[in-house]
Amino acid sequence: MMSPIVLLLTLLVLSVAGYYIGRRKALYVADAAGGLSKLHSRPNYYGALTALWCCMPAFFLFVFWLVFEQSIITSLVVADLSPDLRNLPPERLNLFISDVRSLASGNIVSGEITAEMRAAASHYVDLQGIGKMIVGVIVLVAAVAGMLFVYRHITPGLRARNQVERAVMALLIFCSTIAIFTTVGIVLSVLYEAVRFFRHVPVTDFLFGLEWSPQMAIREGQVGSSGAFGAIPVFAGTLLISAIAMMVAVPIGLMSAIFLSEYAGKQFRAVAKPMLEILAGIPTVVYGFFAALVVAPVIRSGGSQLGIDVSSESALAAGLVMGIMIIPFVSSLSDDVINAVPQSLRDGAYSVGATRSETIKHVLIPAALPGIVGGILLAVSRAIGETMIVVMAAGLSANLTANPLQAVTTVTVQIVTLLVGDQEFDSPKTLAAFALGLVLFVATLFLNIIALTVVRKYRERYE
Amino acid sequence: MSSSKNKSIAGASGSSRRERTIDIVNRRLAKRYRIEKRFRFYGLCSIIVSMVFLAVLLTSIVSNGYSAFFQTYVRLDITLDSAMLDRENPGKSNFQAIIKQSINKLYPEVEDRKSKRELYALFSSGAAFQLRDLVMRHPDLIGTTVSLWVPADDDVDMLMKGYIKRSVAENERRLSDRQLGWIDRLADQDRIEKRFNVTFFTAGDSREPELAGIWGAVKGSFFTLLVTLVLSFPIGLAAAVYLEEFAPKNLATDFIEVNINNLAAVPSIVFGLLGLAVFLNFFGMPRSTPLVGGLVLMLMTLPTIIIASRAALKAVPPSIREAALGVGSSKMQMVSSHVLPLALPGMLTGTIIGMAQALGETAPLLMIGMVAFIVDIPGGFTDPAAVMPVQIYLWADSPERAFLERTSAAILVLLAFLVLMNAAAVIMRKRFEKRW
Which phi and psi angles does A144 have, rounded to 5°? Predict the structure, then answer.
């Protein structure tokens, strides 16, 4: 029996060996043909080609097995079960199988262990062992066969370089499509679960309902057992906190960028810019802790001094800290676009006698406006999707209010609270998180695409 | 503004009796300069405001967290009675009882069960484990009396650090007057002192603050980031090379580019949802493991790395490429032996920055179940593990005062790692960056 790591290492060693063997063969045939110049490619390429044929087919076989191992073995085990077990309803059979699997891997089993289960589990383990052995042998045979295949075909005329380059190119293309796969994966996974959710709760109820209380009762008929999934209060809370954040981040970030690019001396910029970048590098969980520990109590006590009742999880605290987090984001994006405005526009304004601030207000900002707006849109999408600050500093209960001193909840907070912890995966409660995730993804996607297009158009104008 | 000026210039040339332009300009000049100054002041203010935020943030964390690097220990004289310890199999003995016995010896006057329970509460339950380790390592100590510094309970620790105030009324304090008296007695006998908190750097998580440490989370972060790095660097590099050097300008590559740029701005929690639905539910990978965490963070950092790597490739001047092609190398050879080596430092810098981002990321890891309470220190990629930011999140949720200081200390450790990584990136940029 071979563990996957050992198998992969063996494969690696074989490939390295294949490289040297192929290279030697190439040198040998070159000698026979009358010198290196008679070879089509450099000898290294013959080695590389041998190594590729050695590892690639074998590796794909191995990955194929890894992906399908569980389902193949499971179907074999099920086929050998007694008929009455096999004819169980699908969900009970699934439960039985997952118990068998956990028994086989030595984990805790949900129900009590029956003799049948034990037998099935040992059968499972046996099959796993046999499977591993067979796959190990097949993979190694494939590796050696691939190596020998190329080895026998090495002649001075073999276009080794072209073949190797074609393989590398395929790899490069595959790697660059991973971004597409990721997007597709996100869309499909979120959409699939969201559609399942919308089977329980109508889309319109979800998008336009005014009450959000996703706690489902365990027993039928308990008070509030139905759960309400109207997401308007959650959206409103998200918008409220994002608006507060933008009110902090946009003026401060924009003014910082203007000051840094138009007024500050070289030395000041050398100090202040990295400082702003530090603000961007601090993990969001730290901001969340800071909001809950320092900012919220300060706002609360400040409010009680003025005789105003402030919630300890006020939207203001979360929004304020989120705004601080976004300042460097706004400032670096605005800095970029302001610097992209051609110097000739500035010179023109100065030459008619405008002061610096007049140049900035009447020439630079109008010229850079599309870029700045794009940057702000990106910042908004950041604020909407920000999670840790609101999880730690904003509330859980969904209040439909515009009062920044009250506790509100956000989309991301709800996703986290609905999905953290052990829940069955079929209840509307967990599925609701995916519906919220879908809304979040679509909203940020829109903002991002608009923002990126605007910024790109803007850049092109001055390039 | 400019239009009014034009008009006045035109007017001035028409008639000398009218007010001269320069006078109009001069009259408004003072006001304009004031506006100019004010505007400049606003700019400076906003930078100062950001700096102040940063300073407040850092000071509040340092001032809350530095004390967690020290922990109160109590010296106990422990008689390792051979009657209570089995020489053959010392690990099976009841060390809790031995500790209690030596506590009783310090306070012979405490007799009833309730008071005793209050007394034992001053000492950490970790004392028994510490004693067990000692005896297991040195079985020859059995039969002797050892003097051992054991950790005090977190309430005692908080009292010694001044977070529990003696002035507070007894029923609002976590320690009773009687317990305070016992602690004072320990202090009189020089049996209590603050020492460097080694546990914090060597232990995993624990429900008891005095036994909780960051090491499990550090190792978890290490394994997670290793998975991320091993996958995202080669993939990111390959994608960047293809898009920058080979990709034809067509719809497909445009689509890839839009995707990459958009993914860089997708909220991180959405990647967590993807990980939950695809890696955990579809592929059935184990929950809360560095393997899955690393995969999710890989998808998340990939756009960052691709974008940075493309910038690095763009910075390589075309003359290098032309020279390579000119001496007859293929396009692939030109890239692999000329362009790539020159762009590599920039790519590595981008990768380090991406890794720093991944190290601080919490939200997607919550989705894939990395919030479990895990005591054991992970030993591999498929062991359940916590990572540092998640550990911070978990501790920040704990009600004990002692966890508050440990949260801040853990943040300091995390920030230290981030500073190291970013410094490495800066140094690399400074040393290897070429300007053409």
Answer: -65, -40
CA distance linking residue B118 with residue B113, whole number of Å:
9
Residue recorded with tokens 């490939």: A15
DSSP annotation string for A118-181:
HHHHHHHHHHHHHHHHHHHHHHHHHHHHHHHHHHHH--TT--HHHHHHHHHHHHHHHHHHHHHH
CA pair distance B283, A337, nearest whole angstrom = 44
Q: In Å, how far from its chain's centre is CA B257?
A: 31
The domain over range A228-462 is classified in CATH as 3.40.50.300:
no
- How far apart, in whole angstroms, are the C-alpha atoms of residue A96 and residue A88? 10
A24-49: pLDDT as tens digits? 999 888 888 888 888 888 888 999 99
Are B38 and B123 within one domain?
no
SS3 percent helix, strand, coil of chain B, rounded to 5, is 70, 5, 25
Q: Answer yes or no: is B210 within a domain.
A: no
CA distance A410 to chain B (A): 13
Strand partners, B70: B196
CB under 8 Å to B114, separation ≥6 — which residues? none
Cβ pairs A/B, distance under 8 A:
262
3-class SS of residue A397: coil
Q: Within 13 Å and on the Cβ side, how many CA atoms surround A412?
A: 33
Within 10 angstroms of residue B10's Cβ, the number of other Cβ atoms is: 10
Q: What are phi and psi of B309, to 5 degrees?
A: -65, -35
Q: What's the gap between Cα A228 and its chain centre?
A: 29
Q: Is residue A148 within 8 angstroms of chain B, CB to CB?
A: no
Contact B305, B350 (CB under 8 A): yes
Range of the domain at B108: 68-202
pLDDT, tens digit (0-9, with 9 covering 90-100), for B279-319: 888 877 888 889 999 999 999 999 999 999 999 999 999 99
The interface pTM score, or ipTM, of the predicted complex is 0.88
**Residue A406 in tokens:** 């009250």
Closest of A363, A334, A361 to residue A346, by C-alpha: A363
d(CA B31, CA B147): 79
Q: What is the rounded CA–CA span in Å between residue A428 and residue A413?
A: 17
Q: Do B125 and B165 reside in the same domain of the chain?
A: yes
Do B259 and B388 lie in one domain? The reply is yes
Going from N- to C-terminal start, the domains of chain A cover: 4-158, 228-462
Residue with tokens 């895990």: B374
Is A450 near chain B, with CB under 8 Å? no
Contact A255 B268 (CB under 8 A): no
Token reading at B135: 């005896």
Binary contact (B277, A189; C-beta < 8 A): yes
Do A352 and B2 count as a contact with CB atoms less than 8 A apart?
yes
Dihedral, B136, B138, B142, B144 alpha carbons, nearest 10: -140
> The whole model's pTM is what?
0.87
Least Cα distance to B277 among A14, A435, A162 occurs for A435
- Is residue A70 within 8 Å of residue A105, measured between CB atoms? no
Strand, helix or coil for residue B195:
strand
**Residue A385 CB-half CA count within 13 A:** 32
